[in-house]
Amino acid sequence: MGGTASKVFRRASKPAREFNLESRVERILDREKPTPAPRHPGTEHINLPDSAKMKEDLFEADTELLKRLEEVYVTSHDTWAGQKDAVGKSRPLPVDKETIADKPYGYSEPRKISYGKTTLKNVLTFMTDHNQSPDEWNSTKISEKFKLDKENVDHILKYYNLFTLILPGKHKVIKYDAEATKTLGAQRVIQLPAPESKQI
């Protein structure tokens, strides 16, 4: 729809745009040419070469320059290898070729932790301790040990949880690693009831 409307508008406005076109063009062409700004007194004596002559000079072969180029002779000596050895002796490259071990949490833990801040490892540690024994590891003790604000610790313990292992009840034998569940959810294993079997 928009394309059609613009075509119609262009066709309708064409006579108005082309009205008295020739006289308008002549008027613009007959205007006086703007006078160039005066040159600085220091550059008046410099005569710029004609652009047509410059183009001719560019495409002509300069015989004097070609003669000079024929006289040029380049000799090279292989000194780079010696320089490289000298640099290598004075500044040897590191020889340690050990691979960097993968970090347990996927990033490097900071060595120094500022007051009021903590790491992911510490958060998981105090959350696991709190889940195993909430009376012993309360928010006051955690905030004192890890140098955190008590209000922030309360929020972490309230709004964040560790993994809870939920085992479906339809299986007769449930196999799981008790040691692994301790670290995952502090022995929080929830047994779901077996689904009722429907007879058709």
From TrEMBL:
Ranges that cross the membrane: none
Region of interest called Disordered, as start-end residue ranges on this chain: 23-52
Domain of life: Eukaryota
A GO term from the CC aspect: mitochondrion
Amino acid composition bias (Basic and acidic residues), ranges on this chain: 23-34
GO-annotated biological processes: mitochondrial respiratory chain complex I assembly
Record-linked InterPro entries: NDUFAF4
One Pfam family matching this protein: UPF0240
Entry protein name: Protein NDUFAF4-like protein
Organism in which the protein naturally occurs: Armadillidium nasatum
Lineage start: Eukaryota, Metazoa, Ecdysozoa, Arthropoda, Crustacea
